[in-house]
Structure formats: C-alpha cells, structure tokens
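To illustrate this point, we now present one chain and its tokenised fold:
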Amino acid sequence: MKKSTIALRPRKRVRAHPAAQVDTQADNLVEELSPQAQALDAPSLASMEVVDQFTYAHFSQLSLNENYRYYPNSNRIAHAVISREADGTLMASQYGLPIGDDPETPVVCQISDIKEIDVGGMIRHEATGPDGKKWYAKRYERAQIKLEDQDLASVDVAYFSEEDESNRYVFWGSQAEIPRSCVDPVNESQRGLAIPKRVKGGHEMDVDPLSVFMRDTERFKRRGISQNKLMGSEKGGKSARDAYEEYFKKMEHKLSPQMITILKRAFSANIKNPRQNQYRPEWLHAYGFSLTPLSQNPQYKGNLAAAGKWANTEMMVLERIAKWFALHLNSSTRITVKTLFEMLEESELVDKIHFEVSITFHNNFIRFIQDLDAFKEAPVFRKASDLAQATGISYSILHLQMPIRRDKIKSVSEAKAELVIAEPRICRPVPTSFIPRASTESTQYIATIIDIETTGIDKLEDKIIEIGLISFRFTMNEGILAVVDSYTGLQDPGMDLLPEVMRVTHLTNEDIRGQAIDWEYVLGMLDKSNVVLCHNSDFDRKFLERDVPAFIREKVCNLSFGCTMKDIDWQAKGYKSRRLEYLNAQLGFEYPGHRAINDCWATLNLFREVDGSLVELMGNVNKSKTLLCAVDTDFVFRSQFKLKNFQWSDGMLKSIPKGWYIYALDEELVELKEWLDETIYSVKGRSDDIPQLRGLTAKERYSVREEFPNHMVANGNRFFQESAGGKRSKSTAKIKDVDQIQSPGI
C-alpha cells in the first residue's frame, strides 16, 4: 500500500441547501466553523492514504459492527453482481475480495448454480455454496455502472449467506406499500383526511475528501448543537421517538390501521431487543455529517428528519462507501451524494427516501441508488458485511479488475422447470394420527416432542406465543408404539406481533389476544416423559427455560433433551439440508409449517419414515460431552479450527473465554486433544491445561447452562430471572462434579 500527500487545491463550491440560509441557528454555526475550516494545517494531510489495492485490513475494518448498528454478520458470505446482457441473459459476476485470518471477520466464499426464486411475489436468488449447502440472497443494492466507452448499465448487488438451519422467520422483507390514511377515495366527505407531503433536500452535493478527513478526527467529530434540542424546544428538545409519538397522537384519526400499527411498533420498540430496536426512530441527516463540507453545518432543521433505525442504517451503508473512497483514493476521484426526503406534512417524519452515492474514478463510474419506504411493513435489516463487500466490489469495478467467476443465472421459469424434473413427486399431507401397535417388550419409554412459536429469535427478550406437544410411547427395538397425548395452546405476549412473525405463522394479534397456555397440562405431559425432543432444541429449550412459569422451568431443567436436527446425521443419509420442511418434502410429505402442533407431527413423521432415526437419536442423547476451550492461539489456525467444527468465542461470556471452543463427545476427546497438542500448540500435554468442562449430559445439552455453565445455580431461578432482564448472572456456583452427573438413562 502506498501513501501520498493530497495537496490543498481549490474545489468546486458546493451550493448550500436553501433551508440553511433561513435557519438562523444553523447560520451562526456555519460562521463558527468557517474560520476553523480555513485554518486547516496542510502537513496533517500526510496521513491520508492513497491506496493501490483494496486489502483485507480495509475489508475487516468495514465489517465491524460499530455500536451494534448492524444486524449480526454471517460467518461466511458471498456476493453476485447481477446484470443483463444485450440478449436478455442474466449474468452473475463474483469479484476476488480479500480473505484473512481474523475469526471475527466473515469469510468470502464462491457460490455456484445461481437461480431466481419467487418469494411471495418478490424475485430473490438461491445458490449452492462450496460445501453443497443452499445459500440465499436476502439483501440487495441497486446500482448503475459506466466503464470507459461502454453504455450505462443497471445492476443489482446481491449479498448471500448460508441457509439458516432453523429457518425461523426468514427475513425477506416486503414490497407492498401500506396506506397512510384512512381515506375512502369514493367518499367525498373524507377527502380532507388525505395526508399532504413536503420535501427536504433534493440537490446534488460534492463530497470534499479534505473535509471528510478532518471530520474523521476528534477535533471535528462534535455535532455542534444537539439534534434533539434543534428539532424540539429549548427545554431539552424532542427526540425522534417523541416526534413519532407526537405525530401519532395528533393524526390518529386520519391514519390507516396498518399505519397505526407501524407507528406504535416504532415508538414502543424495546431498545434492548436487537430486532425490535431496528424500528426505533432516529434523527437522519439528509446529507451525512461525515460527508458534509466543513464550510457548512449539517446540524440544521432542513437537513434532519425522523425515521426508523433500519432506514438510517440503510443510508449509512452508502455513506460509509462514499467515506472510504474519499479517504483512500486520489484527487482524480469525484464523489457526489444526492438525497430527497419526502416528508409527512405537519411533522418531521420521513415518508420516502431517495438517496444516491456516485463515485467517478478516471473514466469509470458507479452510482448506488436507494428508494426506501420509511413505513415499510417488513424492512430488511442490513449487515456490516454488506458494506464491506460493496466497497470491495466498487473498488474492483472502478479499477477494471476482472471478475474471478461469471455464471449464467437461471430465471424463475427455468428454476421451476428444473425443480419439477428433479422432484416429480406428489406430496401427501403429514399424518396427524397414529394407529397403536402392540409390543412384546416390557421396557418402554415416553418421549415428548415440543415445538414453540415466538415473537422473534432473541432468546433473552422475545416471548412464546404458541406451544405444541405430542407424547409417544416407544421401545428401542420396535420404535413408536402409540401416541399417548397431545396439546396445543396460544399465549398472549402482551405486545403486538411483528409483521414478519404474522406472515410466517399466520397468527394475528386477534388470534392470541387474551390467550393463555395451560401450563398445568403441559407439566402433566412432562411428568410422564423420559426425554424431550425438538427440531432445533437449541432454540426451543432456551425459551422453555426462561419464558415459562417457575414450576415448568424446574421440570425442563431436569429433563434430558434430544434434537432431531443435530442428533441425527442427515447428511450421511443423503439429505442436503436439515430443515424440517425439506426433510418431509424429500420423504414425499407436506404440511403447513410454523404452527407448533403441525411441526410436532412433522417431527414425529421423520421417525416413522426414516429407518433407524429414532435409535440413532437416542444413542446420541445418552452420550456425554466436554466443553473444550482452545485459548491463546494464533489467528493463522482459523481454517484448521473450522474444519474441526470449533466455534469462536469473543469472550463476552465469562464461562467461555476468548478463543476457539467445541462441545466434544467423550470418544472424540482424546483425538481432539492430540490434534491440539500437535497442530496448534506444538507442545505435548498442553491441551490438559486449557479450560475444559467434562460430563455435560442431555440434561445440560441445548440448555442455557451449556452456554453459561459457570452461572448455573441449584434451582436455576436466579440465573433466568437475571438473564430475562438482559443482565449477566453474577452467580459463581459451579456445575456439579463429573461423578455426580447422572446419565439420562432412558
């Protein structure tokens, strides 16, 4: 990487936004900043980098989830720049983004067999990953590209990640626009209820690299006047959340029911819930603070408006791309931004956002374009890895670097035709009854299948809204003998359901309002059970240990759990996915998924249709595991750890120190420790000294106690009470000694 000093030079004067000329408060602040801007010290610019390559250090830095603004990155990611050839053929280009050894930075992979899929009327993309798993693009960037003498081309940048094994609440987003007002266009008396609009922004602004550089220093990071004070009264100001609530109270009589739901979702969102806080309102800059020339002050009313955090993050993805190019490319680079906020009249609330970031390098040009509906029913939450990939792709395109892979994309019609040919089966409904069978064995057991539906996937914040249970009697030799009991119930969580939850479960707020699960009946079924089974016990058990009455929690903590998703080797049986819907489809069955009792019957169906699956699961249930923590290792061993199925801990939990860890079966332990001694530490016996916790049985497996073993107390109540509030348990009680832990012994 080479560095060069950027000389001070006159630049094109940027027109001030008209609103800034009439805002006295803003004018004063501009005058405050102007002398500082004029007094910039040229020698300090030497630290600005002019790079001749996009490096892994750049990629890793851009991938950081700063201030937890972004949704968590996937461990492995991929991309495709989708373009249309002159003959109409869709092509996907993949670029060679840098790959390093930092375990906290996502690994960029190559994908193949990219095809269009229809998801609720939206065109999305599916692909095959390097290990044969399905990958999906759930987030996109719209762009225009012009290279040298070529014509302007429109492309989509698609960001891929691996299939979510649990497949709960796949966040695809939505396209349908909700009505703003309750206006009946036929009713003349209601015409006055229409909600008028106004605009903020709309002009193109040149980004001055020198100003970006200076605003990136501590000296110029200050925001001047507080946004809340500026947008509210002198008595303390008004937050974006206040603006949302104020507008709701003033306009409720005019708003549509859908608009009322979305506004309530915004100003009632729990800030501690990672999913809900994406909806919380924030003050957005039409022209980003870090991109605005030092000769202007971005803190004025004409440049600020309220919208959800998710919308702010969407814009910040493009803003940070512009910022990176401003800081790292030479003076021949021109960067411009253009924003138009369409506002709801009589408010500071954004209705629609149009945002453009354009980068010109020599004769090459790329423009990113966003059109955002601030009141989208189901927005898509962005990841920091999107920003990292988009920046690296832009650098490659502007520098005329060739893609490392270029594939034809199968259209929706081609993909559907292929599916019909590959799987010409007619699926039957999953049976919801079982004819009892006689047994010759005296030793019989009862297993209970449990499935829950929840308000979201946060195991510490979200709540149960539905439960389903099916208890069946079985023997190890004869399999299932009879279904002995079943139950399903709904639970009012005390909050409105998110649109994506309603879309997936088909439950509505009216369905669950005032409903309560009969936990006494659930306890009766659990009392008779030798083992509990779930399809993704890691999800269900943690909710059953927290969001339930104390007497259920105590029972759940003392039961052995098995997982039909993880305790059966589906890949060895020839299946490409462990999803419940997929497995049943491959067996020739279909069912309405994501309703608790339906998922229970679908899980039971696996045992009926796949020989040996129940025996294999029970065999794994009776095995104990050891938590093995490989600390003080070098990043260069990342790939080796991943091949051995180790996971990375960032050290946020005291029970699992920073480093690589694995829950290993006892028969695997000797081999793993020998591998650590030889390959990682190069010292025989070193693995004996690393943190390890032996004797974890099915009673702890998939439990919060598996993730927080040092925080477990005798009855479990203290831990769960503290964790439910988002606080780390302060208990120092230790897990039982190995010889005190009993086998589940079903």
